[in-house]
Amino acid sequence: MFKIVLTTLALTVLTGANAQDNDLGALPAAILPPAGYVPKEKLYAVGTQNYVCSAGAATPWTLVTPKATLYKEEAHTTEVAKHFFTTPDATGAKVIWEDVNGSGSHVRAAPNATSPSPDGPQNVPWVILKATESTGELFGNIGYVLRIHTLGGVAPNATECTAAKNGTEVDVDYTALYVFYTNKGATNTPETPATTSQPVEATKTPVPTGPLSDATRSTVTMAMSVVLSAVGSAIFWL
Ligand SMILES: *[C@@H]1O[C@H](CO)[C@@H](O)[C@H](O)[C@H]1NC(C)=O
Ligand SMILES: *[C@@H]1O[C@H](CO)[C@@H](O)[C@H](O)[C@H]1NC(C)=O
Ligand SMILES: *[C@@H]1O[C@H](CO)[C@@H](O)[C@H](O)[C@H]1NC(C)=O
Ligand SMILES: CC(=O)N[C@H]1CO[C@H](CO)[C@@H](O)[C@@H]1O
């Protein structure tokens, strides 16, 4: 609990800083988004990585899809999105995160680089994915997605993909933190008050009508709730 409080405070203070300086812990260099990208959303996933056995193949277990639900909170209380594979687009990108509220807001991306989980090989690697499509309010303006802090999800042992199991699917439980990065347009300029820096980013959206004001309002609300929750947590715990 105390860790969560510190985490929230750190997020509030350092939202404007670069990827290495936020509350996500040490991020391996291999999966850092380019300079200028900052987290817009952090969502906690629970689900499975689903593999199918191809007996005799060089890689006997093929990942066919993840099936995960993403929540606002680490305690997995408020469901906000689903994560899965879809039909690849022209570039081959097929990884999707989609708002569950019917708005259709989603990000589509393809893996760009991976780094082994620092918590051991029983956990799927940490990954940076590059977005090819990003629409709507929750998932609009996303350039990169990170999968970090993974637990589980690794394919079964190759020896378990026997001829008898050819074609069978095994769904392996996992949890992860997904971080959705948006381009702030500035490189490494510290902008301490999240409440004033966030709307500036929203005004750069190339859609100057209704959705813009909605997006701006939501961004302000989000930034304010982060600050309020940090203040609330601090008062509660100090
Ligand atoms: C597994 O199934 C695939 C097609 O479904 C087939 O091509 C392959 O030969 C099978 N492998 C074994 C070991 O039976
Ligand atoms: C979906 O959620 C967004 C906020 O993330 C909200 O602005 C939008 O109106 C919602 N859409 C629907 C169809 O509920
Ligand atoms: C796979 O299973 C075999 C036999 O059970 C075992 O010897 C081997 O160490 C296992 N490999 C991994 C990577 O767990
Ligand atoms: C973070 C990032 O975009 N990394 C790499 C993604 O893939 C391209 C092309 O393969 C690389 O040039 C980037 O450095």
Automatic annotation (TrEMBL):
Matching InterPro entries: DUF3455
Native organism: Spizellomyces punctatus (strain DAOM BR117)
Skewed-composition ranges (Polar residues): 188-200
UniProt keyword list: Signal
Signal peptide positions on this chain: 1-19
Name of the featured protein: Uncharacterized protein
Key word Signal present: yes
Region (Disordered): 188-213
